[in-house]
Specification:
Immunoglobulin-like; 2 domains; four-stranded mixed beta sheet; 9 strands; 30% strand; globular
Length: 184
């Protein structure tokens, strides 16, 4: 009887290990993650508005139809990026994701405290290469360190009423994601 109990406990333990390993390996094994799907649709280092979700299409999972959504697929191999996004009347959020869809930074219009969310995105190495500027404080310049060279910036603007969705889209259309020093 004790031998059977040990076999059952061993089988349960082995099943748990296999299950946990599978769950943890899925993000690495996935071939149709958000970055891969968006890479086929949007250019690098440019903000692109996504079509509103419906039952037939959904570029990204769990898109809320009450939000206008735009995405910047970034590549920092050529240098840091300057990101600017005006805030909408209701609510605006900006979330930064790694290439493997792990969120590493988020900010919203209330946290920004301004009418425009402005920041510099760079890798740790690029930040280490920055000259020390004594007269520029953290409040003057928000610098975000990306854990990798590529990733996604997802902008969301709330439309509290369906009639305000066009206004939220126009707000996101003014967002910019470009290399530092580039015009436009």
């Amino acid at each position: 009887m004790i031998r059977l109990t040990f076999w059952i406990l061993g089988a349960i333990l082995l099943g748990g290990i296999v299950h946990l390993s599978t769950v943890l390996a899925m993000p690495e094994a996935a071939t149709q993650d958000a970055y891969s799907r968006l890479a086929q649709l949007i250019p690098v280092n440019a903000v692109t508005a996504l079509a509103p979700p419906n039952a037939q299409n959904g570029v990204m999972p769990f898109m809320d139809p009450a939000f206008a959504v735009a995405v910047c697929r970034y590549d920092l191999s050529g240098g840091p990026l300057k990101f600017t996004a005006p805030v909408s009347q209701a609510y605006t959020s900006v979330t930064f994701y790694t290439r493997k869809s792990v969120a590493y930074y988020a900010i919203n219009d209330r946290a920004a405290g301004r009418r425009t969310i402005e920041l510099d995105l760079m890798t740790r190495e690029q930040r280490a290469d920055l000259p020390e500027e004594e007269d520029v404080t953290t409040a003057d310049r928000l610098i975000i360190e990306s854990p990798g060279v590529t990733g996604l910036i997802v902008l969301r603007a709330l439309a509290p009423e369906p009639g305000m969705l066009a206004m939220a889209r126009r707000t996101l259309a003014e967002a910019k994601c470009r290399r530092e020093g580039a015009r436009g």
